[in-house]
Design a protein that fits this description.
The structure is a single chain. The chain is 67% helix and 0% strand. It is built from 36 helices and no strands. The radius of gyration is 51 Å and the shape is elongated. One of its GO terms (biological process) is non-motile cilium assembly.
């Protein structure tokens, strides 16, 4: 025991004595061990009591204090047969807390600074590209410029540290290329060309010659086509023949540039080479355009045949149709039916059909003596190609061409030929026939073909709209609204059905429902003048003049020169009592359309109300030119001269009126009064004429009265024939109108001065008196009469 090493508390090395030799465990010396031999010899073999040594006291102390026993060479770390109170099993020492932070790298070294700067340049290039992807072009340019500045700083640092031989050329190329692209995206073409030039001239950059294509594109954008062609050809010289697609696209750009320059023969050379090497529909279409421009009929036909033979490289539609009852296969087909690949195939096929249809419509009138023969040739060619279904569409376009030539008979005959064909074409033809007959106001035939189109395809919204239109003109608005609603259920984007539904609801007096329709339509057609007018009109009918004015103001922003809208705004402001605003819009309306009698009348009355009679004269003179047979405008001109104090001019005007209308009583009365005041000798002649005219009017009035009485007796007795009854009715009506005029005649002794309340004649109410108000129903009546002209029905003709 004296050789056992005890761990003292103040001992620094806990593991000292690990390799010391302990004689207690030496079995060879057991024979000389007195205690061992005594224990063996005794029978009981009881061990003597233990004496606590210093090590035992230390162990008890550690257990009491909850501390871990010091690790020794005898017992392994963390494993003990004695459980230590207050401590957990933690062989890895995780309870000691986190490890201290790692010692940071020293960034003051030149290599570390260069690496950090390179990373910043790459990050700026990436940020510039991301900004361009989000269409923030200005930010993309700023990031590209910042990357360029940091890249130049990086090169200077490498030169200073003597590592210029290790310059990263790829990083320099990326910075310059991105900067040139961002310049081009921001329409800074000169800066972009200069940057591209820096890259192209540097021989250390591999394949930099391809960037001449980008430079050529910029010249093309600047309409410098000669320079663009030069750079395209330089790029072709530096691109190997292995890159076939790129060379084909560059040659296509060369051909388009030649077309822009009007050099169609040179463009044909490029396009013919492409069609022989790698044909595509866009090049074939451009080739047809060039031959059409030079008028080569034979080559137009050959180019059209090449166009319809271009392979599209897409699969047949049959693979998207399930042919068995396999549920797994059906799920797969349903999944790929609307995937992106199938959508791309549909787009490619649709583009090809568009080019073929446009080419056929273009060359049909040019390749034969008549456009009908040309269309027939195109149809025959298409029927023998992979685009068989386009033949019927060409026939439809043939009918539309007849319509443009106003040959309705041939158009109808062409469309009627489709009645015996498949359902889709029959429905299309019947829809167009219904539209044609509706335009010709043959509503029975329009209704018949609308029914035919609906029977073939009940889900055709155009057919339902045409059917609703035929019912609408018969004033069955309720039934028309049902057809429009059905069209909207089949196609919620059918704007014609929604517009016409609003009109039907308006005619039925359901103003709120009509307003809802036009508000929905306005959300679809934001700049439709007709929709805005209907909304303004509905708010006016709902007596919301403020909203009506707001919508008319929006309409003015879309159509600022519409005189009727301007006049309507003037009327609304006039009703609200805002004369200055009303005058502004009435004057603008007159400026754009100086022949509207209602506007002219309002402006003349406005100047008279404001005591500027001289300015009113020009408006009434214009009304005289528009309606020379209406005496009231000429009397207004004379009255304005009289009110302004120019009696001589007024006298001359009245004399001129008397020469044109010798039986006008008002003119004669004013002539008598003027001549009397001015002391002229003609007063006696005019007085005699006035008496004679008044006497004639009295006789006419008596005849009218007696004729009316006799006509009444004849109707009561039933003894008058139908012819005489009609004659009596006409005489009676004429007498009533004359009687109404005579009732408005002023007395013979009434003065004619400006202070008089009534100044003029028996044929109209003079608005010149200050106390008189201008009638407010004329403009409104005019709008009501022309309302149906604005409420055009949305008849549907197939787009070309």
């Amino acid at each position: 025991m004296e050789n056992i090493h005890l761990a003292a508390e103040d001992d620094d090395d806990l593991y000292s004595g690990y390799n010391d030799y302990n004689p207690t465990f030496d079995s060879e010396e057991l024979d000389n061990d007195v205690g061992f031999q005594q224990a063996v010899r005794t029978s009981h073999g009881r061990r003597p009591p233990l004496i606590k040594h210093a090590s035992t006291c230390l162990l008890d102390y550690c257990v009491k204090e909850g501390a871990a026993r010091p690790m020794t060479a005898v017992r392994a770390a963390g494993y003990s047969s004695t459980f230590t109170r207050g401590s957990a099993f933690d062989p890895l020492g995780q309870s000691r807390g986190p490890a201290p932070p790692l010692e940071g790298k020293i960034e003051d070294t030149p290599d570390e600074k260069i690496k950090i700067l390179e990373k910043k340049v790459n990050d700026l290039i990436e940020e510039s590209c991301l900004a361009h992807a989000h269409m923030d072009l200005q930010l993309a340019l700023e990031k590209a410029k910042d990357a360029g500045r940091k890249e130049r700083s990086l090169v200077r640092q490498k030169e200073q540290t003597g590592t210029a031989d290790h310059i990263n050329l790829d990083l320099t190329y990326s910075v310059l290329f991105n900067l040139a692209n961002q310049y081009a995206n921001n329409d800074m073409n000169t800066e972009a060309l200069n940057t591209y030039q820096v890259i192209v001239k540097n021989k250390m950059f591999n394949n930099a010659g391809r960037l001449k294509v980008n430079m050529a594109n910029i010249y093309f954008k600047q309409k410098n086509y000669l320079q663009a062609i030069k750079f395209y050809r330089m790029a072709l010289d530096q691109i190997s023949s292995a890159h076939t697609k790129m060379r084909i696209r560059i040659m296509q750009n060369v051909g388009v540039a030649f077309i822009r320059m009007g050099q169609y023969s040179d463009a044909i050379i490029s396009f013919e080479h492409i069609m022989s090497e790698s044909p595509n529909v866009k090049t074939g279409f451009n080739l047809i355009l060039c031959y059409y421009a030079i008028g080569d009929r034979k080559m137009m036909k050959k180019s059209f045949q090449k166009l319809i033979c271009v392979p599209l490289g897409i699969d047949e539609e049959d693979k998207y149709i399930s042919t068995n009852d396999d549920p797994h296969g059906s799920l797969v087909i349903e999944a790929i039916r609307n995937d992106q690949l199938h959508q791309m195939e549909r787009d490619r096929k649709g583009l090809a059909e568009k080019y073929i249809m446009t080419s056929a419509k273009l060359i049909a009138p040019a390749i034969e003596s008549t456009f009908a023969a040309g269309f027939d040739w195109c149809v025959d060619m298409v029927k023998g190609s992979q685009y068989v279904e386009l033949a019927n569409d060409l026939e439809i376009n043939k009918a539309i061409t007849y319509l443009r030539q106003k040959d309705f008979k041939q158009a109808v005959e062409t469309l009627k030929a489709f009645e015996k064909k498949d359902s889709r074409v029959k429905s299309t033809a019947a829809t167009n026939l219904s539209f044609l007959y509706f335009l010709e106001k043959d509503y029975d035939q329009a209704d018949r073909y609308a029914d035919l189109a609906m029977n073939v395809d009940r889900y055709n919204p155009a057919a339902l709209v045409n059917k609703g239109n035929t019912v609408f003109v018969k004033q069955d608005y309720e039934k028309a609204a049902e057809f429009y609603k059905e069209a909207l259920r089949n196609d919620c984007s059918c704007t014609e059905a929604l517009y016409n539904l609003g009109l039907a609801q308006k005619r039925l007096g359901r103003l709120e429902e009509a307003l809802d329709c036009f508000l929905k339509l306005h959300a679809i057609l934001r700049n439709s003048a007709q929709v805005m007018y209907q909304l303004a009109n509905l708010y006016e009918l709902l007596e919301d003049s403020h909203q009506a004015t707001e919508w008319l103001m929006q309409l003015i922003s879309v159509s600022p020169t519409d005189p009727r809208v301007l006049a309507k705004l003037g009327e609304l402001y006039d009703n609200e009592g805002d004369k200055s605003q009303a005058f502004q819009y009435y004057y603008e309306s007159f400026r754009y359309f100086p022949s509207n009698i209602d506007v002219i009348e309002w402006l003349g009355a406005y100047y008279i109300d404001t005591q500027f009679c001289e300015k009113a004269i020009q408006y009434f003179e214009r009304a005289t030119l528009i309606q020379p047979t209406q005496v009231m405008w000429q009397l207004m001109v004379a009255s304005c001269y009289r009110r302004s104090g120019n009696y001589q001019k007024a006298l001359e005007t009245y004399k001129d009126i008397h020469r044109k209308f010798p039986e006008n009583v008002e003119c004669l009365r004013f002539l008598v009064r003027l001549c009397t005041d001015m002391g002229l000798k003609e007063v006696q002649d005019y007085a005699t004429k006035l008496k004679k005219v008044e006497k004639m009017k009295e006789i006419r009035e008596q005849r009218v009265k007696s004729g009316r009485e006799s006509s009444g007796r004849s109707r009561r007795d039933g003894s008058v024939s139908s012819d005489s009854g009609q004659s009596g009715h006409g005489t009676s009506a004429k007498g009533e109108r004359l009687s109404a005029k005579l009732k408005t005649l002023p007395g013979s002794n009434e003065p004619y001065e400006a202070s008089a309340q009534r100044d003029v004649d028996a044929s109209y109410v003079d608005p010149l008196g200050p106390q008189m108000e201008r009638p407010k129903t004329t403009a409104k009546k005019h709008m009501a009469e022309d309302e149906f002209a604005d409420e055009e029905l949305g008849d549907d003709l197939l787009p070309e």
